[in-house]
Specification:
The complex is a heterodimer. Chain A is built from no helices and 11 strands. By secondary structure, chain A is mainly beta. In chain B, β4 and β5 form a beta hairpin. Classes of the chains: A mainly beta, B mainly beta.
Amino acid sequence: GQQLNQSPQSMFIQEGEDVSMNCTSSSIFNTWLWYKQDPGEGPVLLIALYKAGELTSNGRLTAQFGTTRKDSFLNISASIPSDVGIYFCAGRYSGGGADGLTFGKGTHLIIQP
Amino acid sequence: GAVVSQHPSRVICKSGTSVKIECRSLDFQATTMFWYRQFPKQSLMLMATSNEGSKATYEQGVEKDKFLINHASLTLSTLTVTSAHPEDSSFYICSARRPGTFTALHFGNGTRLTVT
């Protein structure tokens, strides 16, 4: 199947700092999704991107669908303690798996007060 | 609010027993639901697709007789871990997609299974 490279694997930042993470692939995707997972919980959808070049915000979160359709990034501005968690990207491509999605391995965000 | 509900959130069982996990879509009908397994600090691994009114389809390497799936209604899918062993201990998550949408999946809160 298709592979998604998500980076960084983990981030240790100070409260108030901005955060940036991204997902890349050698293949073209036609949809990108960003999820956040808190410990012991299921992933929660943050942002969905459906068009190349699309830039979408959700509060302090901003995500973009890369123009090459092979990448996406997620930015978090002015981080706060509740931003701690694991962030997953997921992409959909033609001929995808049963659930239609390929998941990145996640970015663990740790915030130091 | 949550659109997919999963129950129980935690379960501890003895080796050799069976455990049933429920996944419900709360405000929509889901003809298809998905079951995942997640190991600590790992991504989600798709186990099977639950199809209302027909047999589930399993991913390669997933034992059908070990993980029984029943999609009895348009809002409920169940995963039964049969004859559980300690190596079945994991975090199990279900998901569903709203009708008319083609991509964004909504996940349940997950079930932490511990087999002693």
